[in-house]
User: Which sequence fits this backbone?
C-alpha cells in the first residue's frame, strides 16, 4: 500500500513528487515513458522557457478566471521561483523570459529528477496506467505493469498535446471515470489553417506584423510579432497566442478571421495613413513604379501577391492609380483578411485549451471536489497559457499545491 501515487512524471508530476516527499509522505511516480520529464526537453526550442517576469493574468486562459486567480497567487509564484533557486538553476533572463543559463532544457529536467531521487521518491517507469477504480477509500490503479494501490492519487498525465511525448489524452478518461466533467479539449498554441488559392504563393515568407483575431466580425485580440506564411495557413508565436481563442470559436461554429497589418513596423495602421505615406515616398523617390516604391519594405513575393490580389499592374506609377485602387492596396497591406478554417492537430499543438473544469477543484490544494483524495495538476485542467513560460508555470504551481495538499489533507 502506497501513500501517494502520482500518475505521470512530467513537469507538474515531478514538482508534486518533490513537495509531497519533502512533507514526509511516501511517494511513487508511475510514468509510461522510459524517462521522466520527456516533454520538458523540447520546451522553448530545447532551451526551456520555464518562467516569465510578466505574470499578468491576461497570459492565462480558462473558463473560470476567479479560481485561476486563487491558484496563481503571488505567494505561490514566489515559492516556485525559490524552488528553482534551491535546485541550483541559474536563470538566463531575456526580456523577462527565463531559461536555464546553459540554454539547455536538460538542465531543468536533470535538476528536477535529481531532487526527486534525493527526496526518496519511488519511480516506476515504462508503466502506463490504463484505468483507476476507487473501492473502500483506496485507489486501485491498473497498469501495463500490474495493479498498484494507494490512499491518494495525483493525476498529472498532461493533456492531448504533442502525444509523442507521452500525453496522449488518456488522462481525461481517467479523470472522467472518476466522476469529473470535461470541457472539450482542443489544440492550442498551434498553427492556423486557411483555404485560399494563393497560399502556395506566400509559402515560406516571414514578416513582422500586428495581427488581430476577428470573431463574428469583432476584433477580440491582437498580437505583435513575426508571422510565418505557409501553404496551409499561418504560424509564428503571434499566431500561436491567438490560436486558443480561434480554435474554441471554430468549435462553437463562430466565424474566425485574422486581420494582418504588414506595415505595422512603419507605424502605418490604415489605408488613409498608407496613402499619405506613399504620397510622401513618391515625392521623395521619383520616377518609380508602384512595385519599385514598395520594394524593400516587404518580401518581393508578398508585394507581387498583394498587387495581384488588388488587380494593380506592378509597373504602374503611383500617380496613375485611381483613389479606389490606392484604398484597396492600402487595405490589403494594413488589414489583410484571412478566413480561418481550422488548426493543425494535437500532434503539433504545444498545449490544449479546455480540460477538467476548475470548478471541480479546490484551488488551495488541487484536490478534486468530486472524488475524495484525488488531486489534478497541470495541462489536464482547463487552463492554457500564452507562449512565454506560462504553461510550465501553471504546471509547477499546481504540482506544488497538489504535492503539499495530498501530504497534509
Ligand atoms: C513543443 C513544445 C514546446 C513547449 N514549450 C514551452 C515553453 O517553452 N514554456 C512553457 O511554459 N511551456 C511550454 N510547453 C508546454 C509545457 O511543456 C506543458 O504545458 C507542460 O509540460 C505540462 O505539464 P504536465 O505535467 O501537465 O504534463 P506533461 O509534461 O505532458 O507530463 C505528463 C506525463 O504523464 C505521462 N503520462 C501520460 N499518460 C500516462 C498514463 N496513462 N500512465 C502513465 N504516465 C502517463 C506522460 O508520459 C508525461 O510524462 C511546450 C510544449 C510543447 C509540446
Assistant:
Amino acid at each position: 500500500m502506497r501513500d501517494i501515487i502520482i500518475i505521470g512524471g512530467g513537469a507538474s508530476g515531478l514538482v508534486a513528487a518533490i513537495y509531497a516527499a519533502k512533507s514526509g509522505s511516501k511517494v511513487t511516480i508511475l510514468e509510461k515513458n522510459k524517462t521522466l520529464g520527456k516533454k520538458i526537453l523540447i520546451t522553448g526550442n530545447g532551451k526551456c522557457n520555464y518562467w516569465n517576469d510578466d505574470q499578468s493574468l491576461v497570459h492565462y486562459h480558462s473558463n473560470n478566471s476567479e479560481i485561476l486567480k486563487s491558484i496563481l497567487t503571488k505567494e505561490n509564484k514566489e515559492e516556485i521561483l525559490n524552488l528553482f533557486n534551491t535546485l541550483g538553476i541559474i536563470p538566463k533572463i531575456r526580456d523577462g523570459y527565463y531559461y536555464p543559463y546553459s540554454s539547455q532544457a536538460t538542465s531543468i529536467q536533470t535538476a528536477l529528477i535529481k531532487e526527486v531521487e534525493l527526496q526518496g521518491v519511488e519511480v516506476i517507469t515504462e508503466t502506463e496506467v490504463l484505468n483507476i477504480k476507487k473501492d473502500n477509500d483506496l485507489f486501485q490503479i491498473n497498469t501495463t505493469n500490474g495493479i498498484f494501490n494507494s490512499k491518494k492519487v495525483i493525476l498529472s498525465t498532461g493533456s492531448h498535446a504533442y502525444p509523442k511525448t507521452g500525453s496522449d489524452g488518456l488522462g481525461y478518461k481517467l479523470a472522467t471515470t472518476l466522476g469529473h466533467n470535461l470541457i472539450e479539449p482542443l489544440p492550442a498554441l498551434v498553427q492556423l489553417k486557411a483555404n485560399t488559392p494563393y497560399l502556395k504563393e506566400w509559402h515560406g515568407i516571414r514578416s513582422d506584423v500586428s495581427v488581430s483575431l476577428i470573431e463574428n466580425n469583432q476584433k477580440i485580440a491582437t498580437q505583435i510579432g513575426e508571422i510565418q506564411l505557409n501553404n496551409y495557413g499561418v504560424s509564428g508565436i503571434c499566431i500561436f497566442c491567438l490560436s486558443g481563442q480561434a480554435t474554441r470559436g471554430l468549435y462553437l461554429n463562430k466565424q474566425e478571421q485574422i486581420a494582418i497589418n504588414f506595415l505595422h513596423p512603419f507605424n502605418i495602421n490604415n489605408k488613409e495613413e498608407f496613402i499619405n505615406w506613399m504620397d510622401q515616398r513618391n515625392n521623395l523617390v521619383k520616377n518609380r513604379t508602384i512595385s519599385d516604391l514598395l520594394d524593400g519594405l516587404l518580401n518581393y513575393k508578398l508585394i507581387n501577391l498583394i498587387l495581384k490580389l488588388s488587380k494593380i499592374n506592378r509597373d504602374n506609377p503611383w500617380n496613375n492609380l485611381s483613389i479606389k485602387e490606392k484604398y484597396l492596396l492600402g487595405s490589403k497591406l494594413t488589414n489583410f483578411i484571412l478566413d480561418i478554417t481550422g488548426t493543425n492537430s494535437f500532434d503539433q499543438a504545444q498545449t490544449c485549451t479546455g480540460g477538467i473544469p476548475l470548478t471541480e477543484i479546490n484551488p488551495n490544494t488541487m484536490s478534486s471536489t468530486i472524488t475524495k483524495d484525488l488531486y489534478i495538476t497541470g495541462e489536464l485542467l482547463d487552463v492554457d497559457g500564452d507562449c512565454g513560460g506560462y504553461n510550465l508555470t501553471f504546471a509547477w504551481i499546481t504540482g506544488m499545491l497538489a504535492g503539499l495538499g495530498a501530504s497534509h489533507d
Q: What stands out?
A: Residues 7-13, 30-33, 38-39, 42-44, 48-49, 128-129, 156-158, 161-162, 165-167, 170-171, 350-351, 378-380, 389-392, 395 surround flavin-adenine dinucleotide (CB under 6 Å). The chain has twelve helices and 22 strands. The mean pLDDT is 97. The two ends are 18 Å apart (CA to CA).
